[in-house]
């Protein structure tokens, strides 16, 4: 079973669309509301086989010194052997030297990966700063407080990487501390909790996932032959999409609208049982307009449904089915494994609703 799963990862992605087509024929996909969310799922990576960037630098220095000393000693031994026994082949590396060189190469590769991640995060931080500056300039406001410090492109000495799966990052899990996880995404239809699209990211947050998940949803709908809802005149309607505050950005909102969705994204955190208040001033920014849109009666009704559309799906997968950890390693394999989990979720929905399409 394990080998079958590993060998059929690409087929699972195609099979997901076929199961989605079955759900459509069973009448379980309506596209009246679509909700997207993510959940952290533990990866098959060990924290005990991880190393911090600061320790990597020390370990690289130590290994290089040991390798240099062993090479010098080997040359001296070769010279002594040739003087005593004559010339012979000496191109085989001693086991201890070979082991150290392999470890050095693995650590240097991990350091390069951490450095690439740090550069990508620094670029994202600069982009967020530029967007914030542009927003202040548009509003005619000045920056408060001190000027921000220059963005560091080098990794922090505490940044870690596991040698068992270098593609996963340390992420915070709800009420369970920190661990190596993958950010599993799902876009779910509001009718019967059918998953329309799934994905896996190595990013600990959802900020960049709104557009890719929307694109994946439309691609799957197209492949499954599911048409978008239309009004009485046959005009294609925008699909209402609800997402939590972790997905919000002006770019994400615009991307969803361009793709044919009507996004309702929380523009800020809202405390439970806190009454909604109408804004007194006319919304001036994109963020304020989105917040006002979610506060409307229609927006409030749609957004409240999010927690009974997509969040129970993760509960069913984790609690009812006990899937809390990926077995495979590497993002490509993890994505295939998550596709298998999501397509079986949809199959269970079809079976439980007792509306399996009749074949002819």
From TrEMBL:
All copies of domain Transposase DDE, residue ranges: 283-351
The cross-references to InterPro entries, in alphabetical order and at most eight, read: Tnp_DDE_dom
Q: Which Pfam families match?
A: DDE_Tnp_1_6
Compositional bias (Basic and acidic residues) spans? Answer: 118-138, 147-159
Region spans: Disordered = 118-161, 271-293
Protein name, entry field: Transposase DDE domain-containing protein
What's the source species for this entry?
Entotheonella factor
């Amino acid at each position: 079973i394990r080998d079958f799963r590993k060998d059929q990862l690409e087929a699972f992605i195609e099979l997901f669309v076929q199961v989605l087509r079955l759900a459509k024929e069973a009448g379980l996909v309506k596209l009246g509301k679509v909700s997207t969310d993510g959940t952290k799922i533990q990866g098959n990576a060990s924290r005990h086989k991880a190393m911090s960037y600061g320790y990597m630098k020390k370990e690289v220095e130590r290994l290089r010194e040991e390798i240099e000393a062993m090479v010098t000693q080997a040359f001296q031994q070769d010279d002594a052997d040739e003087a005593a026994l004559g010339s012979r082949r000496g191109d085989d590396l001693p086991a201890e030297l070979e082991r150290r060189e392999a470890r050095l190469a693995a650590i240097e590769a991990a350091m390069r990966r951490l450095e690439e991640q740090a550069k990508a995060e620094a670029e994202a931080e600069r982009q967020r700063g530029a967007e914030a500056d542009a927003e202040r300039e548009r509003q005619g406001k000045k920056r408060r407080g001190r000027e921000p410090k220059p963005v560091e492109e080098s990794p922090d000495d505490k940044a870690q990487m596991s040698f068992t799966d270098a593609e996963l990052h340390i992420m915070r899990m709800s009420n369970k501390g920190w661990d190596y996880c993958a950010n599993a995404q799902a876009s779910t239809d509001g009718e019967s909790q059918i998953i329309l699209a799934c994905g896996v990211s190595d990013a600990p947050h959802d900020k960049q996932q709104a557009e890719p998940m929307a694109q994946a949803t439309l691609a799957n709908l197209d492949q499954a032959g599911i048409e978008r809802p239309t009004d009485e005149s046959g005009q294609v309607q925008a699909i209402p999409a609800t997402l939590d505050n972790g997905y919000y950005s002006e770019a994400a909102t615009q991307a969803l609208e361009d793709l044919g969705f009507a996004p309702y994204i929380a523009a800020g955190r809202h405390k439970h049982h806190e009454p909604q208040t109408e804004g007194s001033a006319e919304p001036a920014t994109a963020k304020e307009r989105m917040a006002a849109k979610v506060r409307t009666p229609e927006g409030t009704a749609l957004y409240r449904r999010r927690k009974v559309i997509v969040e129970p799906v993760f509960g069913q997968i984790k609690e009812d089915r006990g899937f809390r950890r990926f077995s495979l390693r590497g993002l490509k394999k993890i994505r295939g494994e998550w596709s298998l989990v999501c397509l079986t979720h949809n199959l269970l929905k079809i079976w439980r609703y007792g509306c399996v399409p009749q074949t002819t």
